[in-house]
Fold:
Amino acid sequence: MSALKTELQTTNLTAAKKNFLVLPAILLFDIDGVIRDVAGSYRRALQVTVEHFSGWRPTAAVIDALKAEGNWNNDWDASLELLRRHGTYVPSRRALIEVFSGFYFGGDPEGNPTHWQGFIGDEPLLVDRVFFEELSRQHIRWGFVSGAEPPSARYVLQQRLGLSDPPLIAMGDAPDKPDPSGLIRLAEQLAAGEVPRWIAYIGDTVADVQTVLNARERRPEFPWISIAVAPPHITDVVTYNRQLQQLGADHTLGATRDLLPMIQDGFTP
Structure:
């Protein structure tokens, strides 16, 4: 092979690598269990709501088993399903939502957050604003796809984390997960007409993993990646993450903050 041909091939490979690196990389986050610990808020609200109607308080293990089925990402529906299985009559879904919101928000969900007195005030953050600033420095486009109610999602992202108008798909903006419509819509928005080198979604449940698998079927031209992280209340993280990996997660993490060193080390699908 001539020296000129070798040089041209090397130049072309270098150019291809550079072109690949300038393509956008997109990282989308679930919120509950990924950005904030909801064991003492949403999950507690689920427990006491079920107890309010039935006198029975489901344990964390019971809730985890229900969530592992992959169909109960919405905590209102999860509450209703646990009551149904327990043989308890509930007047209406609206009645349950009012009770649940009373425990969780402790005030008007559309009102001033400083007036909320509910469990939402007991949510430890799992990352900080510097985490997202570093992602931006790494040229990662990021956003959020969550089943949380919009006031709750905006509260944690804008007021607690101090993010300015973050890209967000929340409850009511798209069908509930594992329907991938919201994930696809936000990925397309952030891609801005380009085909990203990867689109990763980090979540903590079976439904989050299944959402990526469903997105892969609906939009196979996009390079989807499922990243699973165990929520803070899980004690056996290794087993939990292994189960999510068996169900289709491409990568697993011990904590959300572990994303940064993975990306800094040259994360590739």
About this structure: The longest strand covers residues 140-145. The first helix runs from residue 3 to 22. Residues 2-8, 10-20 have pLDDT under 50 and may be disordered. The two ends are 33 Å apart (CA to CA).
